[in-house]
């Protein structure tokens, strides 16, 4: 019996450390995987936040660039509209001696046809009837042009007293802005080889 007892003690003294090593190994391995997952998740979180910040900076830069271009565009459009109005006045002045308004209208209509592909057109409205004499063909009514309440269009007009006409020019700002966005974004993301 003493031999059995000694064998049991030897077996327990050998098995106990082996079982303890196995338990510690599996616990340690499980903790390593949990720690590895925590480190990976923390790294991904920091990386994603950094990328989000970088992306937000990039988007803000694009918006600021487009906003600046938009402000400059409005100034340029208004200057261009004024030029077209001056051209219209000059044409009317040069043809004013002609009692036939049809010739003036024909010349102004041909100018609008020549502006095909541009987003600006000239117009002439009879002051009394408030009807188009020369239509800009941009899908805008006389009333909307005179009120200036359509945000899609930028228009400037004034009374041309010798004829009793309201002359002006109108720009389809929405089309200009779409061109700006398309060009602004493509040039912003352009990277030379």
Unreliable parts: 186-193
Beta fraction = 5-15%
Query: What is the CA-CA span between the terminal residues?
Result: 89 Å
The overall strand count is: 4
Please give the radius of gyration in angstroms: 39 Å
Q: Helix tally?
A: 4
User: Could you state the order of secondary-structure elements as H and E?
Assistant: HHEEHEEH
Helix percent band: 55-70%
Shape: rod-shaped
Structural class by sheet pairing and helices = alpha+beta
Describe this structure in words.
The protein is α+β, with helices and mostly antiparallel strands and 193 residues long. The chain has helices at 2-95, 101-114, 142-147, 173-188, and strands at 120-126, 132-134, 153-160, 165-172. Strands 2-1-4-3 form a four-stranded antiparallel β-sheet. Strand 1 (120-126) and strand 2 form a beta hairpin. The N and C termini lie far apart (89 Å). The model is unreliable at 186-193 (pLDDT under 50).
